[in-house]
Amino acid sequence: MIIGHWKHFLAGAALFAMIAGGPTPSAGEEPLVEKYVLGNGLTVVIRPNPSSPVVAVQAWVKAGSTAEPAARAGMSHILEHMAFKGTKRRGPGEIAREVEAVGGEINAYTSFDQTVYHITLSGRFLENALDILADTLGNSVFDPAELSRELEVILEEVRMNEDDPGRVVSKALFREAYRVHPYGRPVIGFVDTIRNTTREDLLAYFHAKYVPGNMVLVLAGAVDPKTSRPLIERTFGRLPAGSAPIAVIQAEPPQKETRVVVKEKDAQRAYIDMGFHGPSMRDPDVYAWDLLSLILGSGETSRLYRSVKDGKGLVDSVSASSYTPRDPGLLFVGATLSPEKAREALKEILLETFRMAAAPPEGPELARAKTATETDFLFSLESQSALARHVGFYETTLNDAAFEQTYLRKIRAVTADDIRTVAKKYLSPGNLSVSAVLPAGRGGMLPVEEIRAIARQAFAEATAPVAAPEKKRTVVKEVLGNGIRVIVRENRAIPVVAVEAGFLAGVRGEPKEKGGVAGLTAGMLVKGTKRHTAREISEAVENMGADLDGYSGRNAFGLKGKFLQRDFEKGFRLFAESLLEPTFPEEELGKKRIETMGALKQQKDQLTQATFLLFLAAHYGDHPYGRNPLGTENSVRSMTPKDLKAYYERWADPRNMVIGISGDIDAEEALAAVREAFGEMPQRPGYVPLGALPVPSHKAVRRVEERRDKQQAHFVIGYPGARFTDPDRYALDVLGSALAGMGGRLFVNLRDKKSLAYSVTSFSSEQVDPGFFAFYMGTSADKLDGAVADTLEEIADVKKGGVTREEFERAKKWMIGTYEIGLQSNGSYADKMVYNELFGTGYEETFTAPDKIAAVSFSDVNRLAASVLDLDVYTMAVLRGK
Hints:
- It is built from 32 helices and 22 strands.
- It is an alpha+beta fold.
- It is globular and about 95 Å long.
């Protein structure tokens, strides 16, 4: 019934932090939660989730053990035990029987800050759950005989906890870490406070705290907000109104020195718990703190597991997790081990922990932690009770039931520097508390003063400046004799290898009358070779569980493949064959024509895409960027195998080619495979590289408009942008990101305050030739003129005053975070390496981009805002209803 041991609650709290921030609704979608307050003061939060026909009903009382007087510690937990022991309408045992009769589950738990009563059952029995919980929270009788019996049960639970070394070490840690704040008292209370608590004490506490104004009712799952409201009014709405005074809790003073407690128990192993004071859930440090804990000690890829357990074999188990409740929490690090290894293990654990400040996340560490955060949330959606738990936690802790809308966005924006910053802020010997439980008679194996000395020594070693070791090259580049540039990245973490080949051309390289030939050529690379038919290629790929597809864009075309490491040799042969020996058979081209014609028609239904195509045509004129990458119906209909072959032979020259490989393969092995397959690829006589193409300039406002039989209106306002190689490209990206997003001024001013848009953004699009900087909005037809005027007003404000420092910093963090998230797979690395090498920035840009974003200055961004944005010269495309 109780989460009587804080570690159990810690797991729940860590889950709250981890799962927060699932998919966020885009502009125009319904909010994730519905929240309202009944007349009696009860807050109601409803989170529909159609994943199953189950509903979780949870009543959250904002009164846990921190709300109790010290002399009556444990009262919240006693109330939790007594809640289902009878009401004015239901006798002892009837509540549980009634819930079980409809196949439901009922329970409760107490934490430091809340007590939660919950029922999970089929949505068709929602009213039963509401009636039972309302009766429990409004009419419990606290029968004296039942209370007497239950107190003995609780005292037995206390004794049971004292027999568990794991619980003893955890409780001791909290007592040391929190000497003033009530987090230092166990939720269950103490033997004497439990014995001294009377029925009158409980009734007084119940009537003071268990009032609607101090409670939140959460419904998650198969529930309709509209039809459920009358049921809630009939049950919880009848509870008498009331509010609880805000409790004043004394803050824990800053800790100045390592605190240590060592206990001896009847135990076979040693138990060590460590805690560093850290942020609360309300602190902006929480996002980096949560990810730090995952990198440090969550799972078999964590630093503690790899070093202390797997590498040195010093512990049976080791883990770390962030505990971030309402008030400042802890970074918890715990281990079980042989007593003989206690000293060495303690030092190694502290070394790895303190190194978080000296060695921030490298390689995939940060991306993996961010992925774990998102996947844990998605997994939680399969459980309505878990979903209700995190909604209730957010509402009672942050007064924001929909906090999941923002959490993941902020998690994604965390950088390695943010991790380093919070590590330096909190991870120090003076902020450390250590508790240890050793077998009886062996406490001398880990003396208190020695623990303090180990902490100081580990900190000194972990933070001492050292010469940077020469890193083994994990990325190599080689230029073959025929001119092909090959880049290989070794990544042994997963047995997957991604390969990509690219040619600089794409739409830029198409003859004007052959629009769409680049896309058709790329798509046909795997539709037949001199040795294999399209069907044979697809069967071979699927038999390996692999991927092999052509791709094309505005600046390049080529082929991508992904194979399991064991299939690399076979897969790479097929990859090379598709690139070197395509035949472009007429039968397969016919299928591609039909497919592309359908895509052209479907494109017209995608109004945002249609508006951008309209904008690009107006902005770029005769430049290839102004054309539809799919071509036109006439050009596609008339395309022949001869046209595809001519395009392919024009651009598939080794001097115009880059091959990128990333994955579980030795660099020399990969280079040898490329040399063997592509080393004899001939250079084409008369090949001329595609140089810069002029982009038209405009000296006035250029406006184009298209009318459709639609109720929506869309518009793009755009300006000349940057090349990939321009020094200002990242500053222009930061400008676009600073204004965009749900926290950006465009969204806040135009959508939230004025309700002009259901979708609004700004961004920079770099290209080989100058790209563009654009503002986009989707609105309703009757608001179009006002939306355009107000957008231009926002542009004028930015041109005049620039972005704010807060917008600037937020944008850089968001860009770095999303960039790193985008580089989680081997395929994304191969893609970036090929594109950067092809487009003139060099493959190294793949790895240095975050540093270049971080180096963008505030003045550069506002300089570009003043120079690029112009109210007298821009291109505007409008798609509106007739």
